[in-house]
C-alpha cells in the first residue's frame, strides 16, 4: 500500500510536471545563418511589429526586449489587439491598454477600448472614459447612449437625443446630427440647418444649408433655398466649388444637371465633368464610369479623365475594359469595341469578360472559354469560371475542382485541386483533401501536398506545419529548420528566427519491487 504522504508527494509531482508542460517551453533563437544565439523559456512569444515583442510564461505576460528578456509586466493573460502604438491586453477583469514603449495608460477593467494615435476611448457598460496622450490624463465622459472615436481622432458622444464634441472649443454645444464619412470633415445639423465641421470641432461652413449630404472624400452635395451646391471641405473655410439655379439630381454616385428641363451636364464632386448638347441619358456603370447616350443612338463611355470610348458606337451598353478593348453589347449579344467606338470583335457571344495578357473570357452557355484579341477561340467553353491572367497563367474551375491554365488554355495540373490561391510572391498555394502544397509561378511543384499549413514569409522561406509540428523549407524543399518544432516565429527586424521546442516531460518511474517487497526508500 502507498502511504498518504507518498500519495501527496506523487500528486504534487504530477502537478509540477503538468505545470511545466504548460509553461516551461524552450525557445531557441537563431541568426539568419542558422547559428544558435540564445534560449528563452516562454509558453508563447508574439512578434507584433519591428519593435514590439511579447511573451507569456508562468510568471505572466510581458513586453520583451530584442534578446527576449522581460521588460514590462503587461498584467494580463493575452494580447487582445495591437494597433500601433497601443497594445490592448486582456485580463480576468477586462481589457486595458499599454503604449508600445511599456506605459500602462488604461487599467485592465474595460469592456471595450477604441484607439487612435493620440486618444483611447474606454467603455464599461454605458459609462465612457477618454485617455489623452498629450497630457497623459484619463477623463470620465459619464453615462452616454453612444460614444465614438472617429478615424480622424474626433470624439462624438450622444446624450439623450443630442450629439456633442467633448474635445472641441464648445463641448456643451448640442447637435441634432454629427455624421462621420470617408473624408476629413463631419456633417453636422442644427435647428438652423446643415453645416460642415473640421477636425478641431469648428464650423468651416455654418449650419445654414437647407439640405446637405456627403458624396466622396471631402466633398458634399447640398440645396439651399433655390440653388444647388457642390461644396469642398477646407480646414478654415469650405469652398462652394459649384452652384447652380438649375436642377442637379443625385442618385447614388450619379449627379446630373438639367437646364430648362433638358439633360445638359454630367457632374462630379467639385463641378462639371462633361457638358454636352444632345444627351438623352446617362447611366453609371461603375464608380467613375458612365454610359452617355446621345441622339441617333450613339453611345460613349465617359470616365473622370474623359472619353474612354468616343460617343459614336452603336451599342446598347459599354463596360470598363483593359488593354484598349471594352466589352460592349448589342441586340442581346456581347463583343468588344476599341477607343474609337469600332467593333473589333463582333457581338456574337452571350457574355464576355475583360482582357488580361491578350486573353479574354467568353461564354455562350453556362461554361466559359478563352478568345484572343481577334476573337479567335483559344480554349473551348468548358469552365465554370476563369480568373484573369497574370504572369502567363490563370486559375480556372470545373466540376468543383481548380486548375491552372497557361496562355494557350492548357491545364498545368492533370488532377484538380480543391482550392488554388495565387500569392503576391508569385506562388500558388494549393489544397487537396485538407492538405496543402506550393507551386511556382509556372505551376511546377515546390512543396508536395502533404502539409496542414504553408506560410510564405518571403521567397525561399516557407514555414510549414505537418502532424501538428512546424519547420522551415526553401524553394528546393531543403530543410532550413526541421519539422519538429511547436512554433516558428521570424523576427526579421532583429535578424533572427525564434523556434519553440517540443516539450518532452520528464517521467520519474518508481523502482519495481523485489520479491514482492518494495525497496526501502521507494
Automatic annotation (TrEMBL):
Pfam families: WG_beta_rep. Residues 1-24 form the signal peptide. InterPro entries: WG_beta_rep (IPR032774). Keywords: Signal. This is WG repeat-containing protein.
